[in-house]
Design brief:
The chain is α/β, with parallel strands linked by helices. The protein is built from eleven helices and 13 strands. The protein has one domain: TIM Barrel. It is 31% helix and 15% strand. The strands form three sheets. The protein has an eight-stranded parallel beta barrel with strand order 3-4-6-9-10-11-12-13, surrounded by seven helices. It has a two-stranded antiparallel sheet with strand order 1-2. The radius of gyration is 20 Å and the shape is globular. Keywords: Flavoprotein, FMN, NADP, Oxidoreductase.
Length: 361
């Protein structure tokens, strides 16, 4: 390490927003809402991260419509009633010097399923399940719901749902929105040939398969304040033969960069039960790196089994990514930022009430 501050703790400016460091709390589903409403759990869960000063804190995926929830307990932004409870959280985070984003999502054919600890597969109507939609009538797996193929009117309606959710996010005080087009959810379902057998303008060719996502991004960018950053999360590969892959992701990233996307959040997988993932420390970083080096005018965020401060710093020093998103490490240690700072020789920034926790005397 040189005498300069580690890159992990250098600021990054996106539009008019300056992140104080490059560490991001990744979106993590908590399955703890009722009717999509944030509650005390979300305030405590997300608020704890603000006390340790990461660069940016994301909520879990917030569904843009009731039918788009993964589970009945998902967070939502489909109604004005969701604004005030979420505003309570953004106020708390801002009051402690933090920045906060919300991930906007629609689960498509992977909707109406049980939270992991409540069961598996489709939730039936007796337990508050509902009918789901997708690019066609292919189910994700035999125990998941069978979707109804979306009409063009359905596509336009969901596009407007994303826009309305983004506008509510602005009213709730969020600094960033992220469009979720990864992990086998609706927008990703349209992108991959494995889940999209349509023969109209939204299926077949690469241009047609990305059309829905591009329409959502353009519409959200138009309804989201220009001075606030827009992120998009993608799965860079389906890890399955004949599916979405890295060359298509690079091509998509080039187009997204021309339509006001500030950061591409690069994950992978989730579309098919046939995926063959080769997992290991930082296994998704090469995807982020390839996109970053091919699309020079877009920032890139790496995520996935990034486990130590040295590993995160090396990714940034190698110019493989601009931001580091962590999920499980923050669940295991909400103060991961403090420990990373100490390990890399940086004075940690933390709430005054917690200052004694870093003293050795």
């Amino acid at each position: 390490m040189s005498d300069a501050k580690p890159k992990l703790f250098q600021p990054l400016t996106l539009q008019r927003l300056t992140l104080p460091n490059r560490l991001v709390v990744s979106p993590m589903c908590m399955y703890s809402s009722h009717d999509g409403l944030a509650n005390d759990f979300h305030l405590v869960h997300l608020g704890q991260f603000a006390l340790a000063s990461p660069g940016l804190i994301f909520t879990e995926a917030a569904s843009v419509s009731p039918e788009g929830r993964i589970s009945p307990e998902d967070l939502g932004l489909w109604a004005d009633e969701h604004i005030v409870p979420l505003g309570r959280i953004t106020d708390f985070i801002h009051g402690h010097g933090g920045l906060v984003g919300v991930q906007l999502a629609h689960a498509g054919r992977k909707a109406s399923t049980y939270a992991p600890w409540r069961g598996k597969g489709a939730v039936d109507q007796q337990h508050s399940g509902w009918g789901v939609i997708g690019p066609d009538d292919q189910a994700f797996s035999p125990d998941f719901p069978t979707p109804s193929a979306m009409s063009v009117d359905d596509i336009h309606r969901v596009t407007q749902d994303f826009v309305a959710a983004a506008q509510r996010a602005d009213m709730a005080g969020f600094d960033v929105v992220e469009v979720h087009a990864a992990h086998g959810y609706l927008l990703h379902q349209f992108m991959s040939p494995l889940s999209n057998s349509r023969t109209d303008d939204y299926g077949g060719s690469f241009e047609n398969r990305i059309r829905f996502l591009m329409e959502v991004v353009k519409a959200v960018r138009g309804g989201w304040p220009m001075h606030k950053p827009l992120f998009v999360r993608i799965s860079a590969t389906d890890w399955a033969e004949g599916g979405w892959d890295l060359p298509q992701s690079v091509q998509l990233a080039t187009l997204l960069s021309r339509h006001g996307v500030d950061v591409l959040d690069v994950s992978s997988g989730g579309l098919t039960t046939q995926q063959q993932i080769t997992a290991g420390p930082g296994y998704q970083v090469p995807f982020a790196s390839a996109i970053k080096h091919d699309v020079s005018n877009m920032h890139v965020m790496a995520v996935g089994m990034i486990q130590s401060p040295e590993q995160a710093e090396t990714i940034l020093q190698n110019d493989d990514a601009d931001l580091i998103a962590l999920a499980r490490p923050f669940l295991g240690d909400p103060h991961w930022v403090w420990h990373a700072a100490q390990e890399l020789g940086v004075e940690p920034e933390l709430a005054a009430q917690y200052g004694r926790g870093t003293r050795l005397d």
